[in-house]
Design brief:
The structure holds two protein chains of two kinds. Chain A is of the alpha/beta class. Chain A is 47% helix and 12% strand. Chain A has three domains: 3-98; 130-160 and 204-376, von Willebrand factor, type A domain (Rossmann fold, 3-Layer(aba) Sandwich); 165-201, no CATH class. The N and C termini of chain A lie far apart (68 Å). Chain B has two domains: 2-70 and 108-187, Rossmann fold; 192-289. Chain B has helices spanning 2-7, 14-26, 40-50, 66-69, 75-88, 92-99, 109-115, 133-145, 176-181, 192-202, 208-222, 232-244, 252-262, 266-271, 274-289, and strands spanning 30-34, 55-59, 71-73, 105-107, 122-126, 147-150, 154-157, 163-168, 183-187. In chain B, α10 crosses α11 and α10 packs across α12. Classes of the chains: A alpha/beta, B alpha/beta. Chains A and B meet through α2, α3, β1, α7 and α12 of A and α2, β1, α5, α9 and β9 of B.
Chain lengths: 377, 291
């Protein structure tokens, strides 16, 4: 294969990777081309390793990389490529459809009937034709919403603001900044007339909200989504996910502005809205696929759910433990907690509790108000 | 490269050797990710030995700033010089030039790495995921230009471009821009065969049989649901511990005594119940008695 063939082939390979939603940039391709000049191009494994390192293939993209490599790097030469490209095209079509696959009506409803022994508290409504249900949202008045947004703006800041360990110059109190003090002193012939100081920087809030949209949460959903939208307004770097039987990233759907409009769009878009719940599986899914990207030591994770889970609790415990270890704070808001008869004995809820920093009710405005003082304390 | 690394006591997989080789040839930083204890830091150390050069290490932590990473002025000396100047009088401008000169500069790892005169060193930026995003951006700038600007001194260019190894435990995702700048290597937990070789290379007193037993035990252990799976570093510690306690084969008692070497999380210790430990030991032993 000549140099030019190699570059063309590499470009095709990079495109195949991008079609498998692996992020590969032009500079990565340049690196890969350089790397290929340095290794034995006849040694397939060596080529694979060199491409892996130079294209910066992360573990989660490994499978896609191996697949593309197997298809495209089978044998050098134009014929092999042509064959590989034909073989690849159905996969491409499939891939293009993939991001939306979970949204369409073709998805099989992933809903098992609820077993008899539901923990008490408030008995949630449940319907098997969850896929077909579109909820009207018409419970809160405009005035409620406005009051709530004001409240939540305050809340979000208190929730997520903190002092960084990084030191920045300040006019007020703080540690002496020798470097700047010295500079100043030079202006007055070496006399330290005033000392420059540094204090810990204030960090930008960062929130991740995981919202349960299953049937048992249905009465509260409008309220809670308003809450989320207001959070998003207050702290722009907020990521929002909805979960019921599957996990859906909502962030791109949340347009600032009209709450009602967004809600209707969401109800239409989120699969299995007002259906069943598999909290554990969804949180585990979240940790695995999004945890690295959105949860770090600065993140406050807010889970909005009643903890009524029908699934196995092991994945829930595992996911909560990871979140608790990685995030700055884990807050669980439970609408059922507003009911004085409720105790968190649902298996899922009980299992998750040890990994929750703040466990609080969220069934009306008043409860959120109390939460503000609780968190601020 | 693989052979060279093995000669220096590092059991390198082809993937690691290829990445290290490319990094030295292409003169690009190598970003190494992987679980704790899989030998990420070790790659940089071995690389320094293979290239026969100095290893300069910058340990990252939250709040790490430019003063600690790049340079700091030696204030005590500057102050003393000022006091002396006060007594003698003299030209203030000349004085300023003097006390903001190279002699009064304390070099921190990054500056030292690019100003080292005797050939390029290996610069290890350890646990880069712990530093803030801001520091990452600064690092990106240094790593792409290999020059730094000190306001009082002007721009200092690199004498040689150092070999750079960055490691990350993935507590936070490294920014795409920095990743682009580097070659990438993800280090997995070692395979059984590799782990046995690591034990033999690092703790030569261990018998082949015990090494295999330890290896099997660790492999089986990583298959469990642990929040902190033990890495190769733990394996080596454990092999050493067993040697100190004069165990020449693995048994239940030995495992109980030394569990602290491999499991470092109370949940994990609790997770590994009595019956489970016995089962793991049996598995490690059965496999070796019938090779």
């Amino acid at each position: 294969m000549t140099g030019r063939d190699l570059v063309a082939h590499l470009a095709r390979f990079a495109r195949a990777l991008r079609e498998r939603s692996v992020k590969v940039g032009l500079s990565d391709e340049v690196d890969a081309a350089t790397a290929l000049t340095l290794v034995d191009i006849g040694d397939r494994d060596e080529v694979r390793r060199a491409l892996g390192a130079s294209l910066k293939i992360r573990p989660r993209d490994r499978a896609a990389f191996e697949d593309a490599f197997d298809r495209l790097w089978r044998e050098p030469g134009a014929r092999g490529e042509a064959r590989a490209r034909r073989a690849e095209s159905p996969a491409r079509r499939e891939n293009a459809a993939l991001p939306r696959a979970g949204w369409g009506p073709g998805t099989p409803p992933n809903v098992a009937p609820r077993p008899g022994g539901i923990p008490e508290g408030r008995v949630p409504s449940y319907s098997a034709d969850a896929m077909l249900r579109r909820k009207p949202f018409d419970e809160c008045t405009e005035r409620d919403l406005a009051a709530m947004e004001r409240l939540i703006a305050r809340f979000a800041l208190q929730l997520a603001t903190r002092r960084s360990r990084r030191l920045v110059p300040t006019r007020g109190r703080g540690l002496v900044d020798l470097r700047r003090s010295f500079r100043r002193a030079l202006g007055s012939r070496g006399e330290f007339l005033s000392l420059a100081r540094r204090a810990r920087a204030i960090e930008v809030p960062r929130l991740v909200v995981l919202c349960d949209t299953s049937g048992s949460m249905d009465p509260h959903t409008r309220f809670l989504l308003t809450f989320i939208l207001s959070l998003k307004k207050a702290a722009r770097r907020t990521e929002v996910f909805a979960f019921n039987t599957t996990l859906t990233r909502l962030t791109p759907w949340l347009a600032p502005g009209r709450v009602g409009l967004t809600l209707d769009r969401l109800a239409a878009g989120v699969p299995d809205w007002a259906g069943g719940t598999r909290i554990g599986a969804c949180l585990a899914d979240f940790v695995e696929h999004h945890g690295d990207d959105v949860v770090n030591a600065h993140t406050v994770v807010v889970v909005l759910s009643d903890g009524l889970d029908r699934g196995d609790i092991a994945p829930l415990v595992g996911a909560m433990r990871t979140l608790h270890a990685r995030a700055r704070r884990v807050i669980w808001l439970n609408p059922l907690l507003g009911d004085p008869r409720y105790t968190p004995e649902a298996r899922g809820m009980a299992a998750a509790l040890p990994y929750v920093d703040v466990f609080a009710p969220a069934h009306n405005l008043e409860s959120l108000e109390r939460l503000v003082t609780l968190v601020a304390a | 490269m693989q052979e060279a690394m093995e000669r220096h006591g590092y059991v390198a997989e082809p993937a690691i050797a290829t990445a290290a080789y490319l990094a030295t040839q292409m003169r690009k930083p190598l970003l190494v990710e992987g679980d704790a204890g899989v030998g990420k830091t070790e790659i940089a150390k071995v690389l320094a030995r293979v290239l026969d050069t100095e290893l300069i290490r910058l340990q990252c932590y939250e709040g790490l700033d430019v003063n600690t990473a790049l340079y700091e002025w030696n204030y005590q000396r500057q102050l003393l010089r000022l006091r002396m100047a006060e007594r003698d009088g003299g030209d203030p401008a000349a004085l300023e030039n003097l006390i903001f000169g190279r002699d009064y500069l304390l070099e921190r790892p990054l500056l030292r790495a690019i100003t080292r005169r005797e050939g390029p060193p290996v610069l290890l930026v350890d646990e880069v995921d712990r530093a803030d995003d801001g520091f990452e951006a600064f690092l990106l700038e240094v790593l792409s230009d290999f020059q730094v600007t000190i306001p009082e001194l002007g721009t200092i260019k690199a004498e040689h471009v150092p070999y750079v190894v960055l490691t990350s435990n993935r507590t936070r995702e490294i920014g795409d821009a920095l990743r682009r700048r580097c070659l990438y290597l993800y280090v997995e937990h070692p395979s059984l065969e590799k782990e046995v070789r690591i034990i033999r290379a690092r703790v030569p007193e261990v018998s082949e049989q015990l090494a295999v037993q330890i290896g099997r035990f660790m492999q089986a252990l990583r298959g469990r649901r642990l929040s902190k799976p033990p890495g190769a570093a733990e394996t080596i510690d454990w092999a050493r511990a067993l040697m100190h306690l004069h165990h020449d084969r693995l048994d239940r008692e030995a495992v109980d005594e030394t569990l602290g070497c491999i499991l470092k999380d109370p949940h994990d210790v609790a997770e590994l119940a009595d019956a489970d430990r016995t089962a793991l030991v049996e598995r490690a032993l059965v496999a070796t008695s019938a090779p």
